[in-house]
Amino acid sequence: MRDIASGQHLPNLRPDGKPLHPSWLPRQRRGKTPQMIGRYPDYDVLSTIETWDEATRKVVLARLEEPGPLRFFDAAAEPTLRAFCDTVLAQDGEPRIPVAEFVDAKLADGRLDGFQYDDMPDDRDTWRLVLSGLDEAARDAGAESFADAEAKTREAIVGRFADGQLYGGSWEKLNVSRAWSVVMRGALSAFYSHPWSWNEIGFGGPAYPRGFMRLGGVGVREPYETPGATSEDPVETVEKEDIDG
């Protein structure tokens, strides 16, 4: 494991401005996290399941069930969807949170976010156009599809997407920057709705009807919480580096 206290895993302190791959984190020892790594290796949110009410348990445990086949995206789009979700969320090993299935189910059931940008199509059409555009960008880079492209190529395409710098073909039908916002909102909300991601970030999970006992702010843990692999405050580390540098 790397020297966490040095803060060199923080993007603002790295020459390329990018975070380290999550593999720098310690192996998970209790519960599950994506790829079995995380900052809270001895924490398992499911250890508090008896403090949740029945309705909450039912909703959360359903997210742990084996996902079914995709219903919204067709077989041609599925590999690109999975490759995109894995790339933007750095899920390149098992166990993975089934983000693609969560996104697909939300779109198939029409459970949209209740708003739409006035210069954008329906979110369902946005997702389809984005996946088509990713394949087009990959072909321009010499790959057969986004899913078939090498990791560095996929990351470069995603970087251009994030910067709103993809043009032509399907992208001409979209405000590219807004399209990034739409699909990332979907991917991130799916990822962070899953208990494995809660373990990864040390999130306490549902607080109803249990509530909170400790109201002392940062550094004051609930009885069921565990220390992280490092106790440094990332904000303080970056601010100190800015002053010293």
Keywords for this structure?
single chain, 245 residues, mainly alpha, 8 helices, 38% helix, globular
Query: What are the low-pLDDT stretches, counting only 5+ consecutive residues below 50?
Result: none
Calculate the mean pLDDT score and round it: 88
Element-level helix/strand string: HHHHHHHH
Please give the radius of gyration in angstroms: 20 Å
Helix content class: 25-40%
- Count of helix runs: 8
Largest sheet: none
Query: What gross morphology would you assign?
Result: globular
N-end to C-end Cα span = 26 Å
Report the count of strand segments.
Answer: 0
**Strand percent estimate:** under 5%
Computed structural class? mainly alpha
Word description of this protein:
This is Gluconate 2-dehydrogenase subunit 3 family protein. Residues 1-33, 223-245 are annotated as: Disordered. Residues 233-245 have a biased composition (Acidic residues). The protein is built from eight helices and no strands. It has helices at 54-62, 78-88, 99-108, 123-140, 151-162, 176-191, 195-201, 234-244. The model has no long low-confidence stretch (mean pLDDT 88). It has a domain at 77-195. α2 crosses α5 and α3 crosses α6 (176-191). It is mainly α and 245 residues long.
Brief account:
By secondary structure, this protein is mainly α. It has eight helices and no strands.
How are the SSEs ordered, and which strands pair?
Elements: H1 54-62, H2 78-88, H3 99-108, H4 123-140, H5 151-162, H6 176-191, H7 195-201, H8 234-244
